[in-house]
Design a protein that fits this description.
Blueprint lengths: L2 H30 L2 H11 L2 H4 L6 H13 L8 E3 L5 E3 L3 H37 L4 H41 L13 H5 L2 H32 L2
Antiparallel strand pairs: 1-2
Length: 228
């Protein structure tokens, strides 16, 4: 392969990776900040009898959690007045510290999104500059898309076979402490978000991301056929 075509293919490959990262970061931030999605999953996987909350509290609870993760709310706490007229706060210090760690991950996700978008613009400009090697660019995009698809498919299979193992590894890599090891007997947060909650979230995220990657690969394949 000639140097200019190799450079064009490399730019296409890196462009596809940057697009994949940008889409993933956008989906994580968007789904994590969606109160309707949070509410529907909590109602499905954490019924009132399991949490000790009234169903009427779920909309406000979901709003508080997503606002906190999105940076619109500064304090992670939900309080309500019980039947005896006493004000009850739902989350204790350990849960609040863990959610502060989670918020830091979402802040990082938004930073990654910004840099990924800048990379897409830069690499897109490079690909346009190398437009005489546009077929090599399309081939690079296809290779990059297939590489990410293979990695995501491997993670998806792992998740299907051993979601708990993947879930634990994710937390061990993401957090420098053990605050995520919550006790359902004492911690409302883990009762609101049990394993089924996270499996559903992961399935939505992974399925949407895979769809976007497949679309990118299909477009690259179409361009390769068109630019023969």
């Amino acid at each position: 392969m000639k140097p200019r075509k190799f450079l064009a293919a490399l730019c296409g490959f890196l462009l596809s990776l940057a697009v994949a990262v940008a889409v993933l970061a956008f989906l994580i931030d968007g789904m994590g900040g969606s109160a309707p999605l949070m509410r529907s999953l909590m109602e499905r996987y954490a019924p009132a009898e399991a949490t000790g909350l009234s169903g009427e509290h779920y909309p406000a609870m979901a709003e508080m959690i997503t606002d906190y993760l999105s940076g619109r709310e500064q304090v992670f706490q939900f309080a309500f007045t019980d039947e005896q007229g006493a004000v009850r706060q739902c989350f204790h210090a350990r849960e609040q510290r863990h959610m502060a760690d989670c918020k830091a991950l979402f802040d990082l996700c938004r930073m990654v999104l910004l840099f990924a978008v800048l990379a897409v613009l830069l690499l897109g400009g490079c690909c346009r500059f190398l437009r005489d090697g546009k077929r090599a660019v399309a081939r690079g995009i296809l290779w990059g898309s297939l590489a990410v698809l293979a990695a995501v498919a491997a993670l998806a299979v792992w998740g299907l076979v051993d979601f708990d193992g993947l879930f634990v590894l994710f937390h061990q890599l993401s957090f420098a402490n053990d605050l995520w090891l919550l006790d359902p007997r004492t911690d409302l947060l883990i009762r609101l978000m049990p394993t089924g909650f996270f499996i559903h979230y992961a399935a939505l995220l992974c399925g949407t991301w895979l769809g976007m990657l497949l679309m990118m690969a299909a477009v690259a394949r179409h361009l390769l056929k068109r630019w023969k």
